[in-house]
């Protein structure tokens, strides 16, 4: 093998390694069922209401849905790096006094066009575009 060919192969391998390192890795796997842990002010989140069944399910087909107390909702989603881009959220419209604040806060964040996400262990934190509000979920 001549020096030019060896140099070319070495350069291609080096560039491939650098590009892989800069790509940020694989997107987080959101597939599965999650329960609400807390929501609201990022500096001081409110714990989820006890004894209220909450569930958000992210499908591998790019659809999610769930309930955080009263109404059912759903939308399409895509993961891009550390963000989730959420389509138009469709929800039932019942009023349930005991869970309305929790539901409004969670659906409010999920209704934003782009939500930042971070995973730590079995917890997923979704943060509003302005960084002021969060939804913390835990894998079921």
What's the number of extended β-strand segments? 10
Radius of gyration: 20 Å
Oligomer: single chain
What sort of overall outline do the alpha carbons produce when their principal axes are compared? Answer: globular
- The end-to-end span amounts to 56 Å
Spatial arrangement of strands, main beta sheet:
1-3-4-5-6-8-9-10
Largest sheet: 8 strands, antiparallel, barrel
Q: Classify the secondary structure makeup into a structural class.
A: alpha+beta
Given as residue ranges, the uncertain stretches (5+ residues, pLDDT < 50) are 5-27
Q: What fraction strand?
A: 35-45%
The secondary-structure element order is HEEEEEEEHEEE
The number of distinct helices, counting runs of at least 4 residues, comes to: 2
Overall pLDDT level: 84
If you had to describe this structure to a student in words, what would you say it looks like?
- By secondary structure, the protein is of the alpha+beta class.
- It is 22% helix and 39% strand.
- It has two helices and ten strands, in the order αβββββββαβββ.
- It has helices at residues 3-22, 100-110; strands spanning 32-41, 46-47, 55-58, 63-67, 72-80, 83-86, 90-91, 114-120, 123-127, 133-139.
- An eight-stranded antiparallel beta barrel has the order 1-3-4-5-6-8-9-10.
- A hairpin with a 4-residue loop joins β3 (55-58) and β4 (63-67).
- The longest helix is centred in the N-terminal third of the chain and has 20 residues, at 3-22.
- It is globular, with a radius of gyration of 20 Å.
- It starts with a helix and ends with a strand.
